[in-house]
């Protein structure tokens, strides 16, 4: 068997997402056939033990991925910034977005959106100039999928950057790298997990910023910034469907 498998999990409480259940957790890996059972089990454990609550609906989906469809990308380089207050962290995020090519209006609109977002399950797409929302996905948003790190490369990368073995960082850098590869101007994100207050601005770099919210706050989300001329259908198709593996050279 050539190729790998995409294993995806989404979990909710109060029924399935499409039946009005509250989103608890999601995750995915690109793995070889031998590792399928192990990673499917990991994702189930995650759904059952999550800070957002216990899932009563778990969906696991497995798709075969042909090798010739895979794109490869080096991870964005990482930098970390600490702010004295949430307000200052928001200002830092706005400055970083401006550096990546987003207008001040759109940067502020992104912060305002995430600050208040409880409903969106994916990301919204925003015009990097006007700050207008461009997708028509409603609460579903756009969910980036089919990306993961090459396992040996991840282990090396962690040693080189002295990062802790954090699933959150692993997933966020893979996602942010794919979002940049897709032709975005930038990305703004912070978690909806109540205890996780670090977020980032993606673009040419992955700039971690903390704290973007107070501990206990269940709001969070993602904004992808694009130029208005971007062909949204191809852009969204790439984000949702094209397999991307993160690996590079040292
Ligand atoms: N595609 C698009 N949007 C997504 C996806 C996805 N695959 N997964 C989550 N989102 C959206 C969704 O609206 C969530 O509510 C929101 O993002 C936050 O998701 O320390 O953990 O998985 O460097 O809670 C960033 C910092 C952590 C990591 C982000 O986000 C670090 C995080 P979460
Ligand atoms: Mg997540
Ligand atoms: Mg959300
Ligand atoms: Mg979350």
TrEMBL record:
Q: Quote the Pfam families the UniProt record gives.
A: BioW
Q: Does the keyword ATP-binding apply?
A: yes
Single Gene Ontology MF annotation: magnesium ion binding
State its Enzyme Commission number(s): 6.2.1.14
Which GO BP terms sit in this record?
A: biotin biosynthetic process
InterPro entries, per this entry?
A: BioW
Q: Which cofactor does the UniProt annotation name?
A: Mg(2+)
Record keywords: ATP-binding, Biotin biosynthesis, Ligase, Magnesium, Nucleotide-binding
Pathway it works in: Metabolic intermediate metabolism; pimeloyl-CoA biosynthesis; pimeloyl-CoA from pimelate: step 1/1
Q: Which reaction does it catalyse?
A: heptanedioate + ATP + CoA = 6-carboxyhexanoyl-CoA + AMP + diphosphate
Q: Does the keyword Oxidoreductase apply?
A: no
Q: NCBIfam families given for it? A: bioW, PRK01322.1
What assembly does the database describe for this protein?
A: Homodimer.
Family affiliation: Belongs to the BioW family.
Say what the protein does.
Catalyzes the transformation of pimelate into pimeloyl-CoA with concomitant hydrolysis of ATP to AMP.
Instruction: Specify the protein name.
Output: 6-carboxyhexanoate--CoA ligase
Origin organism is Terrilactibacillus tamarindi
Q: What is the lineage of its organism?
A: Bacteria, Bacillati, Bacillota, Bacilli, Bacillales
């Amino acid at each position: 068997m050539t190729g790998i498998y995409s294993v995806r999990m989404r979990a909710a409480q109060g029924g399935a997402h499409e039946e009005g259940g509250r989103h608890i957790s999601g995750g995915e890996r690109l793995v070889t056939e031998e590792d399928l059972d192990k990673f499917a089990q990991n994702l189930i454990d995650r759904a059952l033990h999550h800070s957002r609550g216990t899932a009563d609906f778990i969906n696991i989906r497995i798709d075969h991925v042909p090798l010739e469809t895979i794109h490869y990308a080096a991870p964005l380089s990482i930098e970390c910034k600490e702010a004295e207050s949430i307000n200052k962290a928001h200002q830092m995020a706005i400055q970083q977005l401006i550096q990546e090519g987003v207008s001040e209006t759109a940067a502020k609109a992104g912060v305002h959106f995430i600050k208040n977002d409880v409903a969106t399950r994916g990301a919204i797409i925003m015009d990097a100039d006007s700050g207008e929302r461009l997708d028509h996905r409603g609460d579903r948003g756009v969910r980036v999928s089919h990306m993961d790190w090459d396992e040996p490369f991840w282990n090396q990368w962690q040693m080189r950057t002295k990062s802790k073995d954090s699933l959150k960082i692993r997933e966020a850098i893979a996602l942010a790298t794919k979002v940049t590869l897709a032709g975005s101007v930038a990305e703004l994100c912070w978690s909806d997990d109540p205890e996780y207050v670090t977020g980032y601005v993606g673009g040419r770099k992955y700039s971690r910023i903390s704290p973007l919210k107070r501990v206990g706050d269940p709001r969070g989300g993602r904004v992808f910034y694009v130029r208005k001329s971007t062909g949204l259908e191809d852009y969204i198709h790439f984000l949702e469907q094209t397999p991307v593996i993160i690996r590079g050279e040292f």
